Amino acid sequence: MSNKIDDRLPKEVGAKSLPNHPALKTPWEKLISFHDAYHYACRHHAVIGALFQEVLRILIPDYDERCTIMCKVDCGVKRYIFDPEKGMEVAPGLHYVDYHLANHFMHPFFTGTENNGGFRAGVFGDNGDERLLMQGRVNDFGTYRVEKELDACPWDIMGSEICRTSTASLEEIGKCCGDNCEYNMVEARGCGDLHCRVVCENRTKFPMPPREKIWDNFGPIATADQIKFTPREEMYTEPQQMRSEYDFTYRSGTCMEKDADSYYADGAVTYALGSDYCINPINQLIRAGKFTQEQVDFIIECVFRGAGKAQFGEKFAIDGLHDWLGVPRGMNDGRVLGGYIEVILQSVLVPYTVIAFNEEEVIYEIDRAAFNRKLNSLTTAYNAYFYGMVKTLVSPEWTFEEEKEGVPENIYRVKICKKIDKFCL
After folding, report:
1. 3-class DSSP state for residue 317?
2. For 334, which DSSP code?
3. Burial (CB count <10 Å: 0-12, 13-18, 19+), residue 118
4. How far apart are CA 249 and CA 221, in angstroms?
5. Interacting residues of 282 by C-beta distance below 8 A, sequence separation 6+
6. CB under 8 Å to 340, separation ≥6 — which residues?
7. Neighbours of 345 (CB within 10 A)
8. Distance of alpha carbon 256 from its chain centroid, rounded?
């Protein structure tokens, strides 16, 4: 191992001398703006989530069974977090739900309404939508009804299962915070609709037959005649924190304010949303003995390795990445994939150290806990994903592998180098 790093300015050089320009920096001095990094990171998480969704579809081919376990597991997670009596504690005697309500400036009079759970979950959901670049508008926030219309969703490529799961999850938060609320996603971008439209109705005021299945939450609803539809030409292309009319600040109906920087750091790109909807059910299947970890890992590796090869299987995709990263003309070695990996790590705020970066090999040491984001299958997936990528982005002469021997447990050490393997996959 040479430990050689090609000459380059570290990311932080110049920050004290020049006017601040928030951006990611590639190894070749190409800047990727904060705006583009924000959008890239959310969509990247959605892509990884879509691949884990395929893994779960292979494990559980039946739609009903798959949606049921996804909804039940995530509702269990939300109940564990938001339960007012048994949920997480952020301090002795202070449950997370109380902290969350205070953080959203929830007015005390919401407690006395007949739709208090729906109100509170609606406020939480609106904040989360804008934070995750799912901009839109609250069309109704009445005593018995809440309606949110979304113009975008980076996760719309994952399919209908996540639409159903996220709706069941939001309803569970509402049940933890109050009573009598039922949420339906009567339109969903993941199903081909122009908008996502989430409607909460108070079932005392608007009675409907009870659901037979936890995931059967696409309607019908009692108040379809009250829907307010926004045409395409009036839809937003950016969330509030990216629009000048809002002074680049999100403001909720309860006067909660968040700017783009706090949103970026507050989980929008630092946890693998989308993947968690699938990895948590997969882990439960393993604990229940339906599959072994080895069986699951093999499917993950096959799905992600194939996806990595397909991502740069065409020359135009290679040319596009070279241009986006500012790769020097004629460079075609492991540094190209290395530069892309650095952009991913910077965009999702994962610390890393460059150990080697030259035409022979590229080595990084990555903070394992920050990279895994409490999801144990991410390194398995990315190892296969980057392995597949390097075969088409650079050449089959190259490989990507994780180095474990002599490496501390808290370090995820990866290497890109040439390798001849007569049993390669």
Report:
1. helix
2. H
3. buried
4. 33
5. 52, 55, 56, 59, 291, 296, 377
6. 321, 325, 389, 393
7. 18
8. 23
How large is the angle between the packed helices 378-393 and 293-311, nearest 10 degrees?
A: 30
pLDDT value of position 386: 98
Give the pLDDT mean for 211-234.
97
Report the distance separating Cα 389 and Cα 311, nearest Å.
Answer: 7
Residues in the chain: 425
Structure tokens at 13: 């050089």
Backbone φ and ψ for 219, nearest 5 degrees, come out as: 105, -175
3-state helix, strand, coil in the chain (%, to 5): 45, 15, 35
**Cβ–Cβ < 8 Å for 152, 135:** yes
Per the CB < 8 A criterion, the answer to whether 136 and 236 are in contact is yes
Q: How far is residue 132's CA from residue 141's CA, in Å, rounded to a whole number?
A: 21
> How many degrees, rounded to 5, is the angle at CA 163 between CA 162 and CA 166?
75
- pTM (global) more than 0.85: yes
- Nearest C-alpha neighbor of 59 from the set 274, 288, 382, 296: 296
340: Cα separation from own chain's centroid: 19
- Paired strand residues for 199: 147, 184
| Full strand arrangement of the beta sheet holding 136-141 | 136-141, 145-150, 196-202, 181-187
Q: Is the pLDDT of residue 8 over 80?
A: no
Q: How many CB atoms lie within 10 A of CB 362?
A: 29
Cis peptide, bond prior to residue 92, ω within 30 of zero: no
Q: Is the pLDDT of residue 20 over 70?
A: no
Q: What is the mean pLDDT of the chain?
A: 92
Would you state the pLDDT for residue 13?
65
